[in-house]
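Sample pair:
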Amino acid sequence: MLRVLLLTLSLITIAHAELCKPDAQNAFKVRLSIKTALGDNAYAWDANEEYLFKAMVAFAMRRYSSKSSTQISNVLLCNVTDRVSFWFVVTDPSKNVTTVPGSEVEAAIRMNRNRINSAFLLSDKTLQFLKITSTISPPVEPSTPVWLIVFGVVLCIIVAGIVFLVVAGIKQRKRKNKQLTERENLEEKCEVTVTVENGIPCETLDFKAGHINGVFAADDERFTSL
């Protein structure tokens, strides 16, 4: 009985070795860049991390299909390197000697990619499933509603237009007042009238101060008084 059990286990091990190998059918390669992502806080990849990876893949498979009975033992890892890269396959729980189709594994990984990344504190760039395309992060919704943003922009434009009209009106009023003042000053300067007599312009006689006729002034100078 013991021999039969050991023989069965050895056959299962050999079968698993055939199922999980580089470029095997339904196998996926994984590459982790823990040091690049976490720097001095990087953790070592060991058996515990491998167990967590198997658990996360089993979780993804079970979550992808509500009827799935995938266990951690159904996730096989092989060709693990020191630079933290390896291959994995998921075996069929009902048979355990065949693998789950790669399309189902890919769909389950894509569906739960964020959960897997979070478990290892990594991202799509530092936790790479080489045959599985990266998921597109959902768009970030702004905390402020779009309609409120549009309303704020329109309100700012209206306020800016009102301010512009007020400032322009004040400047125009100052310009008109300045022109009116200059015109009044010019009219005051032109108040000195000029009379024209016999076609010759003459200055207006100032009756208060009097005006000396130059001809008579010259005659007075010729005759000296006694």
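The chain has two domains: 16-129, 141-185.
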